[in-house]
Amino acid sequence: MCPYAWDAPGGVQSHVRQLAATLMGRGHDVLVLAPAGSSAPAEEGVRFVGRPVRVPFNGSIAPISPDPSARWRIRGEIDRFRPDVLHAHEPFAPSVSMAAVLATTGPVVATFHAFADRSRTLAAFAPVLRPLWDRLDVRLAVSEAAASFVAARFRGDVRVVPNGVDVGRFANAEPADLGPGSHVLFAGRLEPRKGFGTAVAAFELVSGDLPDLRLVVVGEGAEHHAVDGLAPAVRGRTDMRGFVPEADKPGVFAAADAFMAPATGGESFGIVLVEAMAAGVPVVASDIPGYRGVVTDGGNGLLVPPEDPVALAEALRRLLQDPELASRLREGGRAAAGRFDWSAVTDQVEAAYGDAVQRRRR
Amino acid sequence: MATSEELFLELYRLQPRQRAVVAANMAQVLGHPPESEIVQLATRECFRLYGRYWYETFALRSMPAEEVRRRFTVTGMEFVDEALVAGRGIVLALPHMGNWDAAGHWLALGGYPMTAVAEELRPPGVYDLFYRHRRALGMSIVPLAGTRVAGRLVEVLRQNHVLTLVADRDLTARGVEVEMFGRSRRLPAGPARLALGGGAPLGVAWVTTTDEGWHCVIDRPIEFERSGDLRADVATLTRVMAAQFERAIASAPSDWHMFQPAWDDPAP
User: Are residues B124 and B235 in the same domain?
Assistant: First the structure.
């Protein structure tokens, strides 16, 4: 059950898509239910139940909450498919997942993704949402951060099963040609929350000591002007690549000498960090809850305080001037990334399915 | 929107105990017994409107500004304007009604400097993340914790901000005893204390749900002469606030999102 529009981009949709594909590859019968716009192309194993409601927003799609008739279609699809387990992603979002949990009597596994930003509201709603919670046989969360929100509001265990990454695609990538010199990479939306300004400031600080270092930026956003304030000589060593297609990302990652992820907070999970680690790039990340679950400082990467360009610059300098450290972090990163490969993640999800079925048999 | 409302009506059917809590509150507000038809209908409506509010917490952020403006109507905005012209900010106390986040969003879109006081802070480890919803809606947030809060809020008023507090529930048990709908309960002293401390007017505002959006009423700020005894003044001001909350809730009982017992003592 995916609560958000299948034809809109988003972390939950992409998680459901990849998990379903891995499960099908292992021989499971999988049916995905999701809302989608009327022009969404049909896909094998996916049924669109209801359109995301357009009316309330004057043409702009709120990627949630199918029309009311969808509730009966959801019930019908579940009755016909008769799943052994129903897996509801983001079961509290007022959409397909919530409707399905209320409609089914069979075993239910739920995954909480990013409820972080609704923690206050969730607190107020918890008493009313409890019957829904009580129907979840096994509860999963994609990170400690996501788990702690729900665990603080409801009784019962929440297991952390991380987001998956296609590790092989990054580990086996042919490095792209980024030009001469060494390269530090920033990848993500160029906005304050991702810390792009901090990244640029840190690059400026190390640019004198490391004259052959270049800054490679993958991503777009309102903050791209941050590089305009750099001295011309330093500005000339930045490579703003804008949007890079998913297929080309592994090559760019694999060609970098260091990766920085200076987000200021609000990340419930560091997918981009795992991708960099899988590609064999040593990472420097901010010390925030979502990243702490992935990076062990000094073991598979370096952690620095968020919004601190001086600390970030210092960590980059250490990393780029100490090949032994870089190679240790690279190895640590590769090993850590393995835990997040879809095959490892799917093992844990399958175990959760088994436990949910067992729980009902008892 | 409709789906969320229907799902909450299902939750209404599924939990008799939660239903009884809301019905007891509605019985007190409406002056009829909990099992009466009018109270039962109002209770069901409470769940439906709660479902709508839940949906809106997901949808509001992606709603374009002009759409929020189109869906939002307000009366009494002149009281805010007058207060800001006077230059000492204004304290607006709200009950948990309608969608107060939508009201804050609307104010922020209108360019009003506004600060919301957040009442809940747990778990503290995820502290920085929980503002995101309101920050995304353009409000600045001051958490209600630590020792310097009062000072920071007075500073915010000095900067001529609209300071909003949701104030119909006393979380500290150190609130002021007031009477609402014929029974005593406690309300937080914060709004009165801040208004008196910062020299800002205190007004009550509330938000009700309309077919397509929200209506906000901002009452004329409470006219008040100080007695010189701060404690007595805080109590008096809080009691006037309670009377205005009462009027607000009576005007749209099912818009009051009170899913805990609103009165601690057992009903007489």
Answer: yes
End position of a domain, from candidates B60, B80, B110: B60
Domain containing B132 equals 63-255
Burial code of A111-130, b = ≥16 C-beta within 10 A, e = fewer? bbbbbbbbbbbbbbbbebbb
pLDDT interval class at B130 (50, 70, 90): very low
Q: How far lies A239's CA from each of A3, A187, B190, in Å? A: 38, 12, 53
**Nearest residue, CB atoms, B1 vs list A63, A65, A266:** A65
* B17 domain-assigned: yes
8 Å CB contact of B122 and A60: no
Q: With an 8 Å Cβ cutoff, are A53 and B51 in contact?
A: no
Q: Is residue B263 part of a domain?
A: no
Q: Work out the end-to-end distance of chain A between its first and last CA atoms, rounded to an integer number of angstroms.
A: 25
A68 CB within 8 Å of a chain B CB: yes
Q: B129 and A94: CB-CB below 8 Å?
A: no
Closest CA to A115 of A85, A87, A153, A86: A153
DSSP code for B124: G
Query: Residue B127: its pLDDT value, please?
Result: 39
Question: Rounded to two decimals, what is the model's pTM?
Answer: 0.80
User: Which member of A70, A131, A149 has the closest CB to residue B3?
Assistant: A70
**H and E: helices and strands count for chain B:** 10, 9
Task: Report H helices in A222-270.
Answer: 232-235, 249-255
| Shared-domain flag, residues B103 and B142 | yes
The domain boundary residue, chosen from B60, B77, B99: B60
Domain shared by B124 and B241, yes or no: yes
Residues B210 and B110 in one domain: yes
Tokens 């039962």, residue located: B40
Which residue in A50, A70, A117 is closest to B129 by CB distance? A117
User: Same domain, yes or no, for B159 and B186?
Assistant: yes
Q: Which residues of chain A have pLDDT under 50?
A: 54-63
B5, B6, B7, B120, best to mutate vs chain A, most A CBs in 10 Å = B7
Domain assignment of residue B265, yes or no: no
User: What pLDDT digit, counting tens, does each position of B202-261 carry?
Assistant: 999 999 999 888 999 999 999 988 998 999 999 999 999 999 999 999 999 999 999 999
Chain B contacts of A9, Cβ < 8 Å?
A: none
pLDDT of residue B65: 81
Nearest-CA distance from A52 to chain B in Å?
10
Q: Which residue has the higher pLDDT, A220 or B127?
A: A220
pLDDT band at B138 (very low <50, low <70, confident <90, very high): low
Say if B262 falls within a structural domain. Answer: no
B144 pLDDT higher than 70: no
Neighbouring-strand partners of residue A345? none
- Report all structural domains of chain A as residue ranges with CATH numbers, in order of start: 11-164+342-361 (3.40.50.2000), 167-338 (3.40.50.2000)
Task: State what percent of residues in chain B have pLDDT above 90.
Answer: 60
Which pair of tokens denotes residue A144?
A: 């400690």
- Are residues B118 and B73 both part of a single domain? yes
B-chain residue closest to A66, CA distance: B3
pLDDT of A223 reads: 87
Same domain, B85 and B215: yes
CB contact under 8 A, B57 and A118: yes
pLDDT of residue B224: 85
- Helix, strand, coil share (%) of chain A residues, nearest 5: 45, 15, 40
Q: Look up the ipTM and state it.
A: 0.75
